[in-house]
Specification:
Length: about 190
């Protein structure tokens, strides 16, 4: 009986030692594996990181100013592989009071639940003589930014609006929303 207990204790101790050795981080001599580190200070065989690219906000495709000292800046108009066109930028309130965008949601009945948003935005392809409305989900919500609470005086907010992409041959379009002047922009291809 004593021999059995001793044998069981030895087996249990061996199992615990092996389990602890398998969990340790220093079992490989303290060397990091490629999954633990993607870059080395020396730059040896590690992956090179991509160079930082210029932020999209620095590029201005168009800028228009409307009533109430509101300026709409368009920084990108990118066509993606899925057949969509995403337009994005900033809206700046140069006035002193809070700006809300009630007229920007559009006049369509289906868009009434999209208050204070970019839902009324459209794209016009002058050459193809077509107008593109903003995309919506199955519940009628636009695929766009909503300015919940508006934009305070002296502040800016980023925005986006997604549309069906015009044909590949179309590169020049006009962005329109509410009482803002039309903005002519160029489409770029997605990455």
């Amino acid at each position: 009986m004593k021999a059995r207990r001793a044998l069981a204790a030895a087996a249990l101790a061996t199992g615990l030692v092996l389990t602890m050795a398998g969990c340790g981080t220093e079992g490989d001599g303290g060397k990091k594996t490629s999954s633990e580190s993607n870059a080395s200070p020396e730059g040896g065989d590690a992956k090179q990181e991509d160079k930082p690219q210029e932020p999209a906000e620095d590029k201005v495709l168009a800028e228009v100013t409307g009533a109430d000292d509101i300026t709409l800046v368009i920084n990108s108009a990118v066509r993606d592989d899925g057949g969509f066109l995403t337009v994005s930028g900033t809206v700046r309130n140069d006035g002193s009071s809070r700006w809300i965008a009630p007229s920007w949601r559009g006049d369509e009945k289906e868009l009434s639940g999209n208050g204070q948003s970019m839902a009324g935005a459209t794209l016009v392809d002058q050459a193809g003589k077509k107008r593109y409305l903003i995309l919506r989900d199955t519940e009628g919500h636009c695929l766009c930014t909503q300015f919940t609470g508006g934009v305070k005086g002296g502040e800016s907010a980023t925005w986006y609006a997604q549309f069906p992409a015009p044909p590949q041959s179309t590169t020049d379009i006009t962005f329109q929303i509410a009482d803002m002047p039309p903005a002519d922009i160029k489409i770029t291809e997605g990455e």
